[in-house]
Write a structure and sequence with these properties.
The chain is 74% helix and 0% strand. By secondary structure, the chain is mainly alpha-helical. The chain has one domain: Four Helix Bundle (Hemerythrin (Met), subunit A) (Up-down Bundle). Helix 2 packs antiparallel against helix 3 and helix 4 packs antiparallel against helix 5. It is globular, with a radius of gyration of 18 Å.
Length: 204
Amino acid sequence: MKLKQQCTIPNILTLIRFLCIPVMAKYILAGDDFRVVAFILYGSIWSTDLLDGYIARRFHQITDLGKLMDPFVDKVMQFTASVTLYGIGKVPFWLPLFVASKEVLMMIGTAVVLRTRRQVVYAKWYGKLATFTFVAGSGAVVLMDTSTAVRWAPWIFVPVLLLSLLSVSQYAIAGIRMLADKSSAGEPSDRDHTDEDPSGDKRD
C-alpha cells in the first residue's frame, strides 16, 4: 500500500484517537477530581470515531490501512477504559477480564475463518448494539464519583455482558456456517458480506 494513498483525513483522525487514549487513561486514573476531564476526553474519542467513519464513506476515503486501524483502536479504547476504571475501583474485576477474553476469542475466530475461507464476518446489528451499550455504560461510570460507581457499575454492565455474549455467540454461529459451507471456499459469500468493517463504520 502506498503511504500517500493511506494518508487520508479519516486515518489521521484515527491516529489522533489512538494517541489520545493514554491521555484519557491518565485522567481516569487521576481519580474523582479529574473525572469531568476524563469524560470529555472519553466522549471526544468516541465522537471522533463516528466522524472519521462518516468522512471515509462520504468522501470515498476508505483505505486498507483504515480498515485495520479503526477496529484496532476501538478495541484498545475499550480495553483501556475497562482496565483503568477497574484500577481506581469503579468497576469489578470481571469487566476488563471479560473484555479481554471476548476480543481474544473474536480475533482467533476471525483469523481461522479468514485463513481457511478467505472471508470476514463483518459487523452486525447485535455487535453494534453491544458496542453502544459498552460505550454508554463506560462513559456514565467515568463521569460518576467512585462511591456512586461502585454501587451502580455492576448493574450498568449487566446488559453489556448479556449483549456481548449474544454478539459473540452469533458471530461464532456465522463463522461455523462459513467453515461448513464448502461451496464458499476462497470466495466471499453474498450472504455474509456487507459493506461494513468490524468496527461498524463501513470502511471498505
